[in-house]
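Subject: two folds for Thursday's group meeting

Dear M.,

Sorry for the delay on this. The cluster queue was jammed most of the week, so I only got both jobs back this morning. I'm pasting them in the order they finished. Each block is the input sequence followed by the predicted structure tokens. Could you check whether the formatting survives your parser before we put anything on slides? The first protein is the one we discussed after the seminar.
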Amino acid sequence: MSKGQPRLLVPEIDPAALGGWRSDLPMVELGGATMGTRWRAMFATPAACDVDSVAKAVERRLDQLVSQMSHWAADSLISAFNRSPVGQWMSLPADFAAVIGEALDVAAATDGAFDPALGRLVDLWGYGPQPVDAPPTEDAVAAALHLGGWQQLRFDPAARRLQRVADVRLDLSGIAKGYAVDCLSALLAGRGIGHSLVEIGGEFVGRGMRPDGDPWWVDLELPGSLALPLRLALHQCAIATSGDYVRGRHTIDPRTGKPMAHALSVSVVHRSAMLADAWATALSVADPAAMKALAETNNLAARALIRQREGLVEWFSPAMSRMLVD
């Protein structure tokens, strides 16, 4: 870390999270492909840890999640739901139910800036599995908006079942990857691995600390040299970043049906990668004033690079500002 580089530190260290830490534990790094990107896990290996078994368990868990929530896979559960007759209830496995429950909560809290039922808009703009030759017409966007979004879903959490009351389509891209990161971190913990860093495509969960006594340092994703680099000590928390500087302006406002242009990058630190993922997406959609209000009202640790008339503006929420140290 360069001298004077700004850092982000969690307000408190959890003493219980340091149990089992030893400086002589060997570090292992695993990785592979998933969800159109890469996954990575670094961890301190406790005694009798079967690394090959851990790697296979991670791959199985990822395959399980993809088979449920990837709209890119025609045989996935989400694809089957999107093809199902309107009005038909579908029973959900625990993972899917957990994600849709949180997705609907964030949708309600953001007045639809986050919407798990924007699949038709995603497909119209060619951001889904089928490419398109040209942007959609105004009439096509209006027709998709007319069908509605998340409010056309009925979720019964007790029975773990979901229903569409209009022909909307699910797209969980703004939350499922974060959930997968949480799942891998939990999988490691379940195998006695309490000191780990897990990543899928730039979304991270850090638990415990490194064998060398350092926290799990990660650099916030930055578009080139447009802002000062920031380094975060991930301790019992997660970070997710949403933005358009890698893939272009692909974040759609579910309320207008059009891609957003003002948010270059939004990062959120949260206890859960799933919720960091969803909130980073929602804040990217909200206009700058609404973004700031949402972050402050929900006590979110957020950092944003916002395009404004005067140029690129960097903004830290109060919760994120409290984490900053020189």
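Second protein, same layout:
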Amino acid sequence: MTSPIFAFFDPTYILVIIGLLLSMAASGYVNSTFAKYDRYRAQSGVTGTSAAEYILQQSGITDVTVHPIAGNLTDNYNGGNKTLNLSEATANASSVAAIGVAAHECGHAVQDAKNYLPMRLRTAIVPIANLGSTLSFPLILIGVVMSMNATLIHLGIFLFSFALLFQLVTLPVEFNASHRALQILSDGGLLTPAEVPMVRKVLTAAALTYVAAALATFLQLLRLIILFGGNRDDN
């Protein structure tokens, strides 16, 4: 006889837990790495904002403006309104880490200017990925309530798969932006040869957060397939 303690235990939860642990580990690693190299003041003395403005100018990008925003490591490039937004930890700091993060976001601006295909693809996927993330679990829940309606359940799983597709397309976009950043910093004189490897470590740590997010989403999708993928509507 099954113990009441395990009556409602779903062993597939282990997949969710693994994904959560991966995301937490990646987040902790990027924060600690940034904090480590945020203590190294760049010999050039430029701030993240100044570095970003310099890189944009050198790249021939004149329609992007740099703005400070609240938060820590909330830096982002918005192609919709052509703004490069730098967090408080980056905008006014002159550390090696801050300049590296600013250069990474400039990498996205360069991608946008050059019509980098994976970025265009990611932008195109965003609406349906958001729709899938919003509707997938309600559809699956309704399908379960409606006597395991396979059509609704499978539609929910299909929509959730677009969230994974978005994560996968994001990987080359982020890695390429970091590659561009390192190339720009190596060629532009903003950092010394000894400082560039420090930036590489910061950007590698940041990239791991996207890898962890993709793995966590994959594990969540795998769990849904294990639980409901073989379900058939007998009605």
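Two things I noticed about the second structure. Residues 150-188 form the longest helix (39 residues). Residues 4-228 form one domain.

Cheers,
T.
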